[in-house]
Write a structure and sequence with these properties.
alpha+beta, four-stranded mixed sheet, 31% strand, 147 residues, elongated
Length: 147
C-alpha cells in the first residue's frame, strides 16, 4: 500500500509550537515594576529648608524604563527635602540647599504615568557651590523602585 505524506504537517507543527510559546510567555509573565503601574499618589514634595548661605546645582536627565520623561525630581538630605528640580526641554535643573547635618544627597523621582517613586541607587556628597552635571553632559542616575 502506498502512503501519501501530508504536506501540511510541518506548517501544523510550527503553528502548534508558536501557540505553545505564546501561552508560555503569557503564563510566565513576571511582574515588572517598570511595566506595571503602581498606585502611589503624587507625593507633593515640599522643600523643608530655606537656607541660601550654601547651595549647589545639578543638571540631570531622568531615564526610567517606560516612564515619561516629565515627573518630579527631588533631592533629600536625611529626611529633609533640600531641592525640587524644574523640568525644561528634557533636562532637570536642580538647586540644593543643605537641610541638616547629613552629608549625602539622595535623589528621588516620581513618575506620574507609572505612579511609582524611584530612588537613585547612589548618593553623592553635598559640596558648597558644587555642580553635578552640565547641559552637554547631564548627570544621569540609575534608579531602584521605592514604592
Amino acid at each position: 500500500m502506498l502512503q501519501v505524506k501530508n504536506s501540511n504537517e510541518p506548517i501544523r507543527r510550527s503553528f502548534i509550537i508558536a501557540v505553545l510559546f505564546l501561552l508560555c510567555l503569557t503564563a510566565c509573565e513576571k511582574k515588572d515594576p517598570y511595566v506595571n503601574p503602581g498606585d502611589t499618589p503624587d507625593p507633593q514634595w515640599k522643600i523643608t529648608v530655606d537656607t541660601t548661605d550654601m547651595t549647589a546645582s545639578m543638571t540631570a536627565i531622568v531615564k526610567v524604563a517606560f516612564a515619561q520623561s516629565e515627573g518630579t525630581l527631588a533631592a533629600f538630605m536625611g529626611n529633609d527635602c533640600c531641592g525640587i528640580a524644574q523640568y525644561i526641554e528634557g533636562l532637570y535643573w536642580l538647586y540644593l540647599s543643605p537641610a541638616t547635618n547629613a552629608k549625602d544627597v539622595q535623589l528621588k523621582f516620581y513618575s506620574p504615568n507609572l505612579k511609582r517613586i524611584f530612588v537613585a541607587k547612589e548618593t553623592f556628597p553635598f559640596v558648597n557651590d558644587g555642580l553635578q552635571g552640565t547641559v552637554s553632559k547631564p548627570f544621569t542616575p540609575e534608579w531602584d523602585v521605592a514604592q
